[in-house]
Amino acid sequence: MDRRQFVGRALAAGIALPSLGLAAHAQQPDWSALDYDTVLDEVLSEMEVVAAQKLEMIGGADFVSDYRSVLDLKKMKADFPAPPLTPERIAEISARKYGDVPVAERPAYAWPAADRAPDYSHLAVLPLKSPAFTLSAGVLRLLAQRNAFDLTKTGRPVIVFGLRGCRIADGQLSHPWAKEHALEVGNPSHLSSSCVVGLWRTADDHITLYRASTVPAVAHMYMSLAERGVGASLLPTGLYNYSVGTHLAGKPKSIQRGALRIASGYVVLRTAKDLAYDPYADTTAWTRGEAHNIHAGGVADVFSCAGCQVMPGGYTGEGRRRSTGQWSTFQAAAGLVGADGAFLASDAKPSFLYMLLTGQEAALAFHGGPAFDNGYFRLRPGSTGADVADLQKRLIKDHPGAVPGLTADGGFGLRTTFATLIDREKQTGEYTSPVVAI
Q1: Are residues 266 and 364 both part of a single domain?
Q2: What's the pLDDT band for 234 if we cut at 50, 70, 90?
């Protein structure tokens, strides 16, 4: 497997991207800042869903040996192979503490090279002029248009967005509401928060930003390898629906009220034997995802996340009823906290839109130029409209019966995502990415 970290197309053009996260063997983080009880709760929460409900998958993952996992095209519903979570088994999983492994024996983690990473490989034809760029509502609106994202279907005055592989240029943990913000493209990291999550207030086009992570943390990935990748996974870029709710509701020591809970079926990438989400590898597979929420992730430099979207902060007080850090500021700005300081009650209706893209795409949109202007039109999870319907018609024609229930309804959902991956495998021999260039 290729273990090179993402450096972007910019490197080929002679532009050095800032390093937002170093390889595990290149630095010694403060592992004491990581709460392994929370890590265990976050990993077990997904394992419990899989074990109890036998996670349904369309085009499910079939691990044909200890070292190879593939999408099984012969059966379109499968039970993910997860053993019962007995007390003994939980104790074994809990003992897998990445920070306690001697450095010389610690398995390395890595972000795939740009031409292999599912969220970046489609950008190889678009040269990046500079990693520095200015984020504005105009850039976000252009990206939404070019990805066929309908941002009008929300009951909230703000749209949540994430930029994977990106940082606030001045190194701050957050930026207050403003029309523009200076950002830089960088390397996603499974150790240190190396992404940006923000709120876009559409009434006046002001934006507020927070240092964040949109990828799983290495501690969770390492613990999840005990169950062949169940417990941590990578959410691909796209547009997702979220509702107000509670994260880890069944875990009293880790419960997070006033969080955002993902509210629709979606696909994720899992790694079963190593610490890299490389879709070209023999040990990765795309499956249905569960509970990729937006919540507090502890400290920025050694964040805690099994694949959710997190920012620095936590909870304190009796019953963990008061939030802290940048997460608390985000909650207030998003309207998740009332005037009395109480968290909003859970709402079953999807009420927030979350647009997840890459910092590289935002930089390309800012700098523009003929290559971007003429060559950046994409469909991916969450896209809607006539172009999606045309794609679905082609997928149904080219792969009849491959994904039962797939229709040309114009919505890029769970079935269309799996059909797109099947189509990619037929064309390239690999289940590379759910992003489609049109």
Answers
A1: yes
A2: very high
**Measuring CA to CA, how many Å separate 287 from each of 47, 49, 74, 76?**
14, 14, 15, 11
Does residue 328 sit in the same domain as residue 396?
Answer: no
> The tokens 């923000």 sit on which residue?
198
Cα–Cα distance measured from residue 145 to residue 127, given in angstroms and rounded to the nearest whole number: 20
Residue 12 clears pLDDT 60, i.e. is over it: no
- 351-380, pLDDT tens digit by residue? 899 999 999 999 999 999 999 999 999 999
Question: Total structural domains in the chain?
Answer: 2
Does residue 414 sit in the same domain as residue 300? no
- The tokens describing 196, both together, are 């940006």
Alpha-helical regions (H) of 206-283? 218-224
**Averaged pLDDT for residues 87-110:** 94
CA proximity to 200, closest of 123, 142, 244, 247: 142
Which of 376, 395, 422 is where one domain is finished? Answer: 376
The CA–CA distances, whole Å, from 37 to 33, 118, 146, 223, 365 equal: 12, 31, 42, 12, 41
Long-range contacts of 1-5 (CB under 8 A, 24+ apart): 1/274, 1/276, 1/278, 1/280, 1/281, 1/282, 1/283, 2/112, 2/113, 2/116, 2/278, 2/280, 3/108, 3/110, 3/276, 4/110, 4/112, 4/113, 5/110, 5/111, 5/113, 5/187
With 90 as the cut, is the pLDDT of residue 183 above it?
A: yes
Angle between helix 414-428 and helix 386-398 axes, rounded to 10 deg: 60
Q: Look at residue 256 and tell me if it is in a domain.
A: yes
Please give the structure tokens belonging to residue 247: 């994260």
347 with 427, same domain: the answer is no
Domain that holds residue 424: 384-432
Strand partners, 29: none
Q: Please check whether residues 124 and 249 belong to one and the same domain.
A: yes
Spatial separation of the C-alpha atoms in residues 414 and 262, rounded to whole Å: 13
Buried b (16+ CB within 10 A) or exposed e, 277-290: bbbbbbbbbbbbbb
Does any domain span residue 320? yes
Q: Are residues 159 and 242 in the same domain?
A: yes
| Residues 379-429 pLDDT 10s | 999 999 999 999 999 999 999 988 888 999 999 998 899 899 989 988 988
For 119, which DSSP code?
T
Burial 131-151 (b: 16+ CB within 10 A, else e): bebbbbbebbbbbbebbbbeb
User: Which has the higher per-residue pLDDT, 66 or 383?
Assistant: 383
Whether residue 297 sits in one domain with residue 408: no
When comparing pLDDT for 349 and 205, which is higher?
205
Q: Assess if residue 2 is contained within a domain.
A: no
| Residue in the block written with tokens 């398995």 | 107
